[in-house]
Amino acid sequence: MSGPTKATLSKDKKTLNQCLKNDFKIMVQEALDAMGRVLDQREKDLKDWTPDKQDEFHKIFGSRGEREIPVDLPLRGVSDIHNMTAREIMLDGIRRLRDIKGQLTVNDFINEIDGPKAFCARVSSGQQSNYKVHIGINFTGRLKNHGFRSCMSVMGEDSRVSTLCHEMSHFVKKFAEPSQGGMGTSDYDENCHKKKHEDGEDKSSFEQHKDGANKMVKKEDPNVFDNAYNIERYFQISA
Questions:
Q1: Are the CB atoms for 133 and 119 separated by under 8 Å?
Q2: 22, exposed or middle or buried, with CB in 10 Å at 0-12, 13-18, 19+?
Q3: CA nearest 45: which of 98, 91, 83?
Q4: Is 165 helix (H, G, I), strand (E, B) or coil?
Q5: SS3 of 199, please?
Q6: What local confidence, expressed as pLDDT, does residue 21 receive?
Q7: Which stretch of DSSP H or E encloses residue 58?
Q8: What is the pLDDT of residues 25-73, one digit of tens each?
Q9: Could you say which DSSP state residue 11 is in?
Q10: Beta-strand (E) ranges in 14-124?
Q11: Helix (H) or strand (E) segment spanning residue 45
């Protein structure tokens, strides 16, 4: 491929193997800008809280928003449980994701597209400042039939934005200031068991994680708000 690809190509799902590999910073900035719009839209949905938004929320989390969930806001490593409604948890999560996004520049994204492992994105969850996000080849698009890589959409289902929301939700709450930092989410497998999410440690497949997310909704499992796969689904929209 000669010369950099243009950013607009990343929105064309039919474009094969032209997924902004040469325009890494443009691709990342485009995703960050779109993430801002998605977070704004979801905050508006949660504040308007019309019946259709409640129905959508129920499909993703198994709750219509008013059920109280115990949330740990540990201070200096000591557990401190607070009851919050499901809707409050997500409003707080949006605030946290927006704050982390505001601290990131394109230089905080590590380009591992040509690395030895095929993955979408990953983070080290223990980060409390100077956040870094590692980007792999699957962020440009997933391998499809006949070995072609189809470009990943910027917004919507299985998109760059929803992937970033998933990964940033993993960041822990701050040790000395738990009202700040990430959501501290984990990944759960098909049996709804908590798994390590770091690259190379979690042996469950993407499909197994999706199956676990579905089961948690059906069971009305309160841990659904700790599962990054369910959090990701809430941000699979076009804004």
A1: no
A2: middle
A3: 91
A4: helix
A5: coil
A6: 52
A7: helix 51-61
A8: 999 999 999 999 999 999 999 999 999 999 999 999 999 999 999 999 9
A9: G
A10: 68-72, 81-85, 109-111, 121-122
A11: helix 24-48
Domains and CATH numbers, the chain: 23-234 (3.40.390.10)
**Amino acid identity, residue 182?**
G
**Token pair 């999706």 in the structure block, residue:** 210
Supply the pTM of this predicted model.
Answer: 0.88
CA 175 to chain CA centroid, Å, is 22
Alpha carbon distances (Å) from 112 to 20, 128, 139, 173, 232: 13, 22, 10, 26, 22
* Assigned token pair, 138: 């699957």
Residue 111 confidence (pLDDT) above 90: yes
Q: Which of 211 and 116 is assigned the larger pLDDT? A: 116
C-alpha to C-alpha distances, 167 to 12, 135, 218, nearest whole angstrom: 24, 11, 24
* H-helix or E-strand spanning residue 167: helix 160-169
| Identity of the amino acid at 144 | K
Measured distance CA(64)–CA(55) in Å, rounded: 7
Please list the residues that pair with 75 across neighbouring strands: 78
Burial (0-12, 13-18, 19+ Cβ within 10 Å), 6: exposed
Q: Which helix (H) or strand (E) holds 86?
A: helix 86-103
